[in-house]
From TrEMBL:
Signal peptide: none annotated. Residues 61-116 form a coiled coil. GO terms for biological process: metaphase chromosome alignment; positive regulation of protein localization to kinetochore. It comes from Anas platyrhynchos platyrhynchos (Northern mallard). This is Centromere protein Q. Belongs to the CENP-Q/OKP1 family. It is found in: Chromosome, Centromere; Nucleus.
Amino acid sequence: MDSGILSILCQQSGKKGDVQKHLNVLKERMLRLFKTLKVPPGKLGELKNILSLQLAEKQMLEANEETLIQLQEEITEAERSAEHIEETINRLQNKIQTLKRQLEEDEKKAQKVFQEDGTGALHLPELPKRSLQAPYLQDEILKITNQKGLLKDMNTIQQSADMKNMLTLIEKIHEKVDFL
């Protein structure tokens, strides 16, 4: 049995030697190919300037990082601005809703005031009774004993500058109200 083991070990060591020889042959072939391999001249120059290229890349990376930080700040600012605009829009929409409700209420009130029946007559609110019971101004004037003196006083009041200014003011107010 010892002789069998020794024979197997010899065969394996022989195979090992063959494998080793084959690997050495492959190694030599590869080295020969590498020696004949030509490197492009531009690439060779770049290999010599690797440190300067690395420094340039590092500077470009730093510049890009600074730009990225600035862009992030601008994005944050834009987000804040968008939030502010959104809040303003919401506030204005709420205000619009409130004004719409108020307009609807005012229109309902106006419809109640100006409701027409089939005849086309308006249903206006009733006048207070005391306005109908008030004495007419003409009757009161006829009761005055000194009517000529009253007429002179009223004429003086009508001709006064204050009265003219007041009448002009009333006319302008009427024009503005008509314009609205």
